[in-house]
Amino acid sequence: MITETMPVEQTSEAANERYDLISQAIEEVRPYLRSDGGDCELVSVEGNLITVRLRGACIGCSLSGATVKGVEARLVSKLGFPLKVALAPPGPPRPPQMHRRA
Hints:
alpha/beta
């Protein structure tokens, strides 16, 4: 198996760029959620697993699963590769976390 490695600064730069694209894509869907009294925040990025937290009217909504799938579809469309969006339990807002796998 051939593996390509990148210098740490390039890896870090690529991870930051990817994180920014994910954050931007989530920001693009937030106005739609807010118009219905809900909201969505980025909680963490761990490889291809993106964790978000729903807020407001989205909590307990019967369509929250569809909302998460919509966020996932938007991210896949914007980033161009498959990933998984998971729902974090309700809780206080906190700054998003980015975890890099070694």
